[in-house]
Amino acid sequence: MAELGDAITRDYAGETVIMVGVLKGSAFFLADLARSVHIDCTFDFVAVSSYKKGSRSTSGAVKLLKDLDEPIEGKHVIIVEDILDTGITLGYLRKIFLQHKPKSLKIAACLDKPARRVEPIEADYVGFSIPNQFVIGYGMDYAEKFRNLPDICILPPDFPA
Ligand code: PRP
Protein backbone atom coordinates (compact mmCIF):
# COMPACT_ATOMS: atom_id res chain seq x y z
CA MET A 1 0.00 0.00 0.00
CA ALA A 2 2.84 2.34 0.88
CA GLU A 3 4.41 1.73 -2.54
CA LEU A 4 1.17 2.53 -4.35
CA GLY A 5 0.65 5.60 -2.22
CA ASP A 6 4.21 6.79 -2.86
CA ALA A 7 3.80 6.36 -6.62
CA ILE A 8 0.58 8.38 -6.63
CA THR A 9 2.08 11.02 -4.35
CA ARG A 10 5.04 11.35 -6.73
CA ASP A 11 2.97 11.40 -9.92
CA TYR A 12 0.56 14.07 -8.66
CA ALA A 13 2.93 16.24 -6.60
CA GLY A 14 1.41 19.68 -6.17
CA GLU A 15 -1.89 18.63 -7.76
CA THR A 16 -5.35 17.83 -6.45
CA VAL A 17 -6.89 14.47 -7.30
CA ILE A 18 -10.43 13.12 -7.14
CA MET A 19 -10.37 9.47 -6.07
CA VAL A 20 -13.49 7.75 -7.34
CA GLY A 21 -14.36 4.52 -5.56
CA VAL A 22 -16.50 1.95 -7.35
CA LEU A 23 -19.01 0.61 -4.83
CA LYS A 24 -19.04 -1.60 -3.05
CA GLY A 25 -15.91 -3.67 -3.34
CA SER A 26 -13.42 -0.79 -3.37
CA ALA A 27 -14.37 0.58 0.06
CA PHE A 28 -11.49 -0.95 2.05
CA PHE A 29 -8.89 -0.37 -0.65
CA LEU A 30 -9.92 3.26 -1.12
CA ALA A 31 -9.76 3.86 2.61
CA ASP A 32 -6.25 2.40 2.87
CA LEU A 33 -4.92 3.86 -0.38
CA ALA A 34 -6.16 7.35 0.42
CA ARG A 35 -4.33 7.25 3.76
CA SER A 36 -1.11 6.37 1.94
CA VAL A 37 -1.35 9.26 -0.50
CA HIS A 38 0.12 12.56 0.63
CA ILE A 39 -1.46 15.07 -1.72
CA ASP A 40 -4.72 17.03 -1.71
CA CYS A 41 -7.48 14.67 -2.65
CA THR A 42 -11.23 14.41 -2.51
CA PHE A 43 -13.50 11.37 -2.78
CA ASP A 44 -16.44 10.53 -4.94
CA PHE A 45 -18.24 7.23 -5.50
CA VAL A 46 -20.05 5.53 -8.33
CA ALA A 47 -22.10 2.35 -8.30
CA VAL A 48 -22.64 0.10 -11.27
CA SER A 49 -25.05 -2.73 -11.83
CA SER A 50 -23.51 -5.99 -10.84
CA TYR A 51 -23.99 -8.17 -13.88
CA LYS A 52 -22.39 -11.10 -12.06
CA LYS A 53 -24.00 -10.82 -8.65
CA GLY A 54 -24.18 -14.12 -6.82
CA SER A 55 -22.11 -15.97 -9.35
CA ARG A 56 -18.48 -16.31 -10.24
CA SER A 57 -18.94 -15.75 -13.93
CA THR A 58 -19.27 -12.68 -16.09
CA SER A 59 -21.68 -11.78 -18.83
CA GLY A 60 -23.78 -8.88 -19.96
CA ALA A 61 -23.63 -5.12 -19.88
CA VAL A 62 -22.92 -2.58 -17.15
CA LYS A 63 -25.37 0.10 -16.02
CA LEU A 64 -24.63 3.15 -13.90
CA LEU A 65 -26.69 3.02 -10.68
CA LYS A 66 -25.08 5.99 -8.93
CA ASP A 67 -23.35 8.76 -10.86
CA LEU A 68 -20.58 11.09 -9.69
CA ASP A 69 -21.68 13.80 -7.27
CA GLU A 70 -19.16 16.41 -8.47
CA PRO A 71 -18.10 17.45 -11.98
CA ILE A 72 -14.74 16.00 -13.07
CA GLU A 73 -14.13 18.26 -16.05
CA GLY A 74 -10.57 19.62 -15.94
CA LYS A 75 -9.73 17.53 -12.84
CA HIS A 76 -7.26 14.72 -12.20
CA VAL A 77 -9.26 11.56 -11.58
CA ILE A 78 -8.19 8.16 -10.30
CA ILE A 79 -10.77 5.38 -10.46
CA VAL A 80 -10.23 3.09 -7.47
CA GLU A 81 -11.25 -0.55 -7.88
CA ASP A 82 -10.82 -3.63 -5.73
CA ILE A 83 -10.30 -5.90 -8.72
CA LEU A 84 -9.73 -5.63 -12.44
CA ASP A 85 -11.15 -8.85 -13.80
CA THR A 86 -12.67 -8.96 -17.30
CA GLY A 87 -12.25 -5.18 -17.53
CA ILE A 88 -15.90 -4.74 -18.53
CA THR A 89 -16.69 -2.49 -15.55
CA LEU A 90 -13.62 -0.30 -15.92
CA GLY A 91 -13.94 -0.19 -19.70
CA TYR A 92 -17.45 1.17 -19.26
CA LEU A 93 -16.48 3.65 -16.55
CA ARG A 94 -13.45 4.90 -18.47
CA LYS A 95 -15.61 5.55 -21.52
CA ILE A 96 -18.24 7.57 -19.66
CA PHE A 97 -15.70 9.44 -17.50
CA LEU A 98 -13.71 10.50 -20.58
CA GLN A 99 -16.87 12.07 -21.97
CA HIS A 100 -16.68 14.50 -19.02
CA LYS A 101 -13.22 15.64 -20.14
CA PRO A 102 -11.11 15.18 -16.99
CA LYS A 103 -7.60 16.68 -17.02
CA SER A 104 -6.30 13.13 -16.57
CA LEU A 105 -7.83 9.73 -15.86
CA LYS A 106 -5.99 6.84 -14.27
CA ILE A 107 -6.96 3.55 -12.64
CA ALA A 108 -5.79 2.08 -9.35
CA ALA A 109 -6.70 -1.56 -8.77
CA CYS A 110 -5.88 -3.50 -5.64
CA LEU A 111 -5.89 -6.77 -7.61
CA ASP A 112 -5.46 -7.56 -11.27
CA LYS A 113 -6.51 -10.86 -12.88
CA PRO A 114 -5.00 -10.50 -16.37
CA ALA A 115 -5.99 -14.03 -17.42
CA ARG A 116 -9.67 -13.03 -17.29
CA ARG A 117 -9.45 -9.92 -19.46
CA VAL A 118 -12.12 -9.37 -22.09
CA GLU A 119 -11.77 -5.59 -22.53
CA PRO A 120 -8.31 -4.26 -23.45
CA ILE A 121 -7.73 -2.20 -20.31
CA GLU A 122 -4.87 -1.99 -17.82
CA ALA A 123 -4.60 -0.27 -14.46
CA ASP A 124 -1.96 2.41 -13.90
CA TYR A 125 -1.46 1.38 -10.27
CA VAL A 126 -1.80 -2.31 -9.31
CA GLY A 127 -1.40 -3.82 -5.86
CA PHE A 128 -1.05 -7.47 -6.87
CA SER A 129 -1.44 -9.42 -10.07
CA ILE A 130 -3.16 -12.72 -9.23
CA PRO A 131 -4.08 -15.98 -10.98
CA ASN A 132 -7.62 -16.84 -11.97
CA GLN A 133 -9.03 -17.72 -8.56
CA PHE A 134 -12.15 -16.32 -6.90
CA VAL A 135 -11.18 -13.99 -4.08
CA ILE A 136 -13.18 -12.63 -1.18
CA GLY A 137 -12.56 -10.38 1.80
CA TYR A 138 -11.07 -6.87 2.13
CA GLY A 139 -14.29 -5.53 0.58
CA MET A 140 -14.78 -8.29 -1.96
CA ASP A 141 -17.82 -10.54 -1.78
CA TYR A 142 -19.39 -13.77 -2.80
CA ALA A 143 -23.16 -13.14 -3.01
CA GLU A 144 -22.61 -10.07 -0.77
CA LYS A 145 -20.97 -12.11 1.99
CA PHE A 146 -17.39 -12.11 3.29
CA ARG A 147 -16.65 -8.44 2.49
CA ASN A 148 -15.68 -7.90 6.13
CA LEU A 149 -12.91 -10.47 6.19
CA PRO A 150 -9.83 -8.42 6.98
CA ASP A 151 -7.62 -10.33 4.54
CA ILE A 152 -7.97 -11.29 0.91
CA CYS A 153 -8.81 -15.01 0.75
CA ILE A 154 -9.42 -17.57 -1.98
CA LEU A 155 -12.95 -19.01 -2.10
CA PRO A 156 -12.63 -22.77 -2.63
CA PRO A 157 -14.01 -23.90 -6.02
CA ASP A 158 -16.35 -26.38 -4.25
CA PHE A 159 -17.87 -23.72 -1.93
CA PRO A 160 -21.68 -24.17 -2.10
CA ALA A 161 -23.55 -21.57 -4.19
C1 PRP B 1 -16.46 -6.38 -8.94
C2 PRP B 1 -15.36 -5.38 -8.71
C3 PRP B 1 -15.34 -4.60 -9.99
C4 PRP B 1 -15.81 -5.61 -11.01
C5 PRP B 1 -14.63 -6.07 -11.79
O1 PRP B 1 -17.66 -5.77 -8.63
O2 PRP B 1 -15.62 -4.56 -7.62
O3 PRP B 1 -16.24 -3.51 -9.94
O4 PRP B 1 -16.38 -6.71 -10.31
O5 PRP B 1 -15.02 -7.06 -12.69
P1 PRP B 1 -14.88 -6.89 -14.24
O6 PRP B 1 -13.47 -6.42 -14.52
O7 PRP B 1 -15.13 -8.29 -14.74
O8 PRP B 1 -15.91 -5.93 -14.73
P2 PRP B 1 -19.02 -6.54 -8.35
O9 PRP B 1 -19.82 -6.53 -9.62
O10 PRP B 1 -18.75 -7.89 -7.77
O11 PRP B 1 -19.73 -5.59 -7.31
P3 PRP B 1 -19.21 -5.10 -5.87
O12 PRP B 1 -18.10 -4.09 -6.09
O13 PRP B 1 -20.42 -4.49 -5.23
O14 PRP B 1 -18.71 -6.33 -5.14
Automatic annotation (TrEMBL):
<dbReference type="InterPro" id="IPR000836">
    <property type="entry name" value="PRTase_dom"/>
</dbReference>
<dbReference type="GO" id="GO:0052657">
    <property type="term" value="F:guanine phosphoribosyltransferase activity"/>
</dbReference>
<keyword id="KW-0547">Nucleotide-binding</keyword>
<dbReference type="InterPro" id="IPR029057">
    <property type="entry name" value="PRTase-like"/>
</dbReference>
<protein>
    <recommendedName>
        <fullName>Hypoxanthine phosphoribosyltransferase</fullName>
        <ecNumber>2.4.2.8</ecNumber>
    </recommendedName>
</protein>
<dbReference type="GO" id="GO:0000287">
    <property type="term" value="F:magnesium ion binding"/>
</dbReference>
<keyword id="KW-0328">Glycosyltransferase</keyword>
<keyword id="KW-0479">Metal-binding</keyword>
<dbReference type="InterPro" id="IPR005904">
    <property type="entry name" value="Hxn_phspho_trans"/>
</dbReference>
<keyword id="KW-0460">Magnesium</keyword>
<dbReference type="GO" id="GO:0006166">
    <property type="term" value="P:purine ribonucleoside salvage"/>
</dbReference>
<dbReference type="InterPro" id="IPR050408">
    <property type="entry name" value="HGPRT"/>
</dbReference>
<dbReference type="GO" id="GO:0005829">
    <property type="term" value="C:cytosol"/>
</dbReference>
<feature type="domain" description="Phosphoribosyltransferase">
    <location>
        <begin position="8"/>
        <end position="142"/>
    </location>
</feature>
<dbReference type="GO" id="GO:0032263">
    <property type="term" value="P:GMP salvage"/>
</dbReference>
<dbReference type="GO" id="GO:0000166">
    <property type="term" value="F:nucleotide binding"/>
</dbReference>
<dbReference type="GO" id="GO:0006178">
    <property type="term" value="P:guanine salvage"/>
</dbReference>
<dbReference type="GO" id="GO:0004422">
    <property type="term" value="F:hypoxanthine phosphoribosyltransferase activity"/>
</dbReference>
<comment type="pathway">
    <text>Purine metabolism; IMP biosynthesis via salvage pathway; IMP from hypoxanthine: step 1/1.</text>
</comment>
<dbReference type="GO" id="GO:0032264">
    <property type="term" value="P:IMP salvage"/>
</dbReference>
<dbReference type="Pfam" id="PF00156">
    <property type="entry name" value="Pribosyltran"/>
</dbReference>
<keyword id="KW-0963">Cytoplasm</keyword>
<keyword id="KW-0660">Purine salvage</keyword>
<keyword id="KW-0808">Transferase</keyword>
<dbReference type="GO" id="GO:0046100">
    <property type="term" value="P:hypoxanthine metabolic process"/>
</dbReference>
<comment type="similarity">
    <text>Belongs to the purine/pyrimidine phosphoribosyltransferase family.</text>
</comment>
